[in-house]
Amino acid sequence: MGGAALMPMTAILHGSCHCGRLRIAFDTGVALADFAPRACDCAFCRKHGAAYISDPAGRLTVIADEGALKRYRQGSHTADFLICGECGVLVAVTFEDDGRRFGAVNAGCLDEASVFAAAVNASPQSLTAEQKVLRWRQLWIPDVVFEFSPR
Ligand SMILES: [Zn+2]
């Protein structure tokens, strides 16, 4: 225990879409109350009521039942929105840059959603595609892995 106390506290936050065919595990050292979900003001995210959290030192695993994961592109077509093909819930957003996959989690899909700080507004649509990529590289989870499980 003595050695472990010197390490930053990390936790794995779990979540899913409504039907459970898309699941997420978000490994982070950020305290839950320090997350202020970013409510994106683009038309797509507004329709979903999406607000995102991420951790530039975190790790995200997306576990999808075979055939459940749908990717949707909109706006500048830079990012992939991950949606359950069965229940339609948006669980996360990712983008790839230099062979690396970054991501942010739709906070409302996490079991811990009720303890996050109040959402803040974000307006990535006001940025150019290049500015978005720069921002996301700084802000988003830099390590996103997909796992596919048979039904
Ligand atoms: Zn679902």
UniProtKB/TrEMBL annotation:
Gene3D superfamilies: 2.170.150.70
Molecular function in Gene Ontology: carbon-sulfur lyase activity; metal ion binding
Pfam families: GFA
Keyword Zinc: yes
Keyword tags: Metal-binding, Zinc
Domain CENP-V/GFA: from-to ranges: 13-126
Record-stated family: Belongs to the Gfa family.
Protein name: CENP-V/GFA domain-containing protein
Natural source organism: Arenimonas oryziterrae DSM 21050 = YC6267
Lineage of the species this protein comes from: Bacteria, Pseudomonadati, Pseudomonadota, Gammaproteobacteria, Lysobacterales
